[in-house]
Amino acid sequence: MWLKIRPYLLLMPAVGLTLLLFFGGLALGLLQSLGLFSISGGSSFTFEWYQTLLVDQAFWKSFWLSFYTAGISTLISAVLGILTALGLLRLSYKWQRMTQFALLVPHFIAGYVVILLFMQSGWVSRWLHAFGLIDSIEQFPILVNDPFGWGVILTYIWKETPFIALMVYPVLARIYQSWLEVAQTLGASRLSFFREIVLPLVLPAWLASALIVLAFTFSAFEVPYLLGVTFPETLSVFSYQTYLSGSLEERPLALAVNFLLAVATGFLGWIAYQWSKRWSVQGWKGW
Amino acid sequence: MILRKIFTSVILSVLVALMAGCTSQGQDQEKSQPSEQTTPLEKSWEEISSTAKGKTVSLYMWGGSDSINRYIDEWVAPRLKEQSGVTLKRVPVNDTKDVINQLLTEKKAGKTNGSVDIIWLNGENFKIAKENQLLFGSIAPKLPNVQDYVAMGAPDLQYDFGIDTEGMEVPWGKAQYVFIYDSKHVAEPPKTIDELKDWIKQNPGKFTYPAPPDFTGSAFLRHVLFETSGGYEDFLKPFDQQIMDEKSQAAWAYLNEIKPDLWRKGETYPESLAKLDLLYSQGEVWMTMGYDAARASNEIKKGTFPESTRTFVLDKGTLANAHYLSISFNSAQPDAAMVAINYLLSPEAQIAKFDPRHWGEDMVLEPSKLSTEEQQQINSIDRGVATLPAEALAKHKIPEIHADYVDYLEKEWKTNVAKD
């Protein structure tokens, strides 16, 4: 008995602290978004702030913006990520290490680099001008702080592609090591090997990492803050601005947005978990 | 199954224990707080200085200016360390509101041993801090340099955006809003907000302002408000929502009128002054602005702004205010914090701050109270090619208005201008 619970007891301080800080913060945010323990004084239960949000058109615009920038970024990064991972299989170990460097760059630095490169007076635009490809820098397309969000998407693609690549790479490496020769002796072409064997086996890891990216890009703050437009802003920026602006009375509104973001993220995490469970139950475990 | 039950119950009990620990700790601290808090304010300056020796204090301040950061790190910190044994650690923040938020949370949680010792603040942030008792207390009467050199009773120092400081914060410097322009493209800078509008229309895409609630963008709104509604005087009275709704109409009309001719047709605004400066230094826009009369000269020297950069003020005046240093309610080292603030207000530190090689900002000390040597030293400082002469600035100063107006403008700007 003692031996059995020992590992749990040893984990307790770390797990307990994480749970306390994470769920404690979440719970406090939820309570305050419901008007309880208000920081500006007073405490009364109300759904008022959620109501305000859900009938506000600006909120839905922000929601839609967050959703489609996250969706497009995830789709493109997922495709590029698996292609990169396939490419990595053919490269030496040294090169594989190189791609990990991309992961070390914090998101806001990546965002700033994209601004410096792609703003209308940025490096790319000036190079094009210097080589005579455009007559003036104003002709360079508006890629950052653009209403659609291309700047945000671009930044996420270059940050998340290596992440997905590194998540699926070990799986791919194992598949190729253990199945490629077998498949080839049985007459599979490289393409049919990829379609019939690689794709089904890599799918759980691939989908799970894509969902992580989706959940992250949907709720992350710094990139849309630096590269977005003033209005509409993503939900995270909307929440930040509300939290910071002037009076304390509107703070529950910001926390309500945060809680909805947390729910959305949790939901995506739950789907990812369900998927991975379904795959493992279907007997892919043993390969 | 049993294991899982045990696991859950143990986790729960640990959680409960931790929470209980937090609350009881909080209560203890609340009880002991008053006595702890008042001690440094009751001590003599000698006692304070001797307690301060060997301590480290943190200074939480807006970190967006290299020259200011260098002044603190390279000029102040080593001298303070040498003279009084206090180590000053600068902690950069993007917005002072972040610090206020942190303190609000710490206050709620009953945390007494805070990491924030000194805060650089004014206006709205001081209002929130004062209302929520986030500050240590009336420190000004304790500091020798404040008593010797600062005219604390002067209205521009005693009232911070219309709020009585009550000595809870100590003035550190004065700032005046100036517009910065590139004289290569702007032959004759506008003198009024109306002339600015004409200029914007003639030069589409070459002007913008930071999106409020950015500090600088918010101040730009106030200049527009004053000049479109007939002067700042009306806004020194207590806030009245109805009057404000009427008076602000002309300002929103103005801002929407210039919008199509702004940078990127007003579809978006720079989210910070740093971004506007970047646009200016790259030549995308031809004007920037800010609360620092000497900043343009400094940026020229660093090579970020073009040599042809100059500054202008409006005929009817630009906003001027003082900014302050204060100590947080839960500072772990209040004695050392007081010693550090006192040093920042010493003639040598203030004169160095006035010198554009370090920062170039207005002093907060009364020049008449300084020695003749020090006065000569001040007169010999060259404030840089783009800095307006002191008299020109002084003649065009207008006071800040009550923080409630600032809140109102920032919020309404989003509805009336950004969303349209």
UniProtKB/TrEMBL annotation, chain A:
Listed InterPro entries: MetI-like, MetI-like_sf
Keywords of this entry: Cell membrane, Membrane, Transmembrane, Transmembrane helix, Transport
Record bears the keyword Cytoplasm: no
Record's subcellular location: Cell membrane
TM annotation in the entry: 68-89, 101-119, 156-176, 197-221, 253-273
Domain spans labelled ABC transmembrane type-1: 63-272
Topology of this chain in the membrane: Multi-pass membrane protein
Classification via Pfam families: BPD_transp_1
UniProt-listed PROSITE patterns: ABC_TM1
Family annotation (PANTHER family): INNER MEMBRANE ABC TRANSPORTER PERMEASE PROTEIN YDCU-RELATED, INNER MEMBRANE ABC TRANSPORTER PERMEASE PROTEIN YDCU-RELATED-RELATED
Family label: Belongs to the binding-protein-dependent transport system permease family. CysTW subfamily.
Protein name, per record: Spermidine/putrescine transport system permease protein
From TrEMBL, chain B:
The keyword Signal appears for this protein: yes
Chain spans, region Disordered: 25-47
UniProt cross-references to InterPro entries, sorted A to Z: SBP (IPR006059), YnjB (IPR027020)
Signal peptide coordinates: 1-20
Pfam families in the record: SBP_bac_8
Keywords: Signal
Taxonomy, superkingdom: Bacteria
Compositional bias segments (type: Polar residues): 34-47
PANTHER family tied to this protein: PROTEIN YNJB
NCBIfam families from the UniProt entry: PRK11622.1
Protein name: Spermidine/putrescine transport system substrate-binding protein
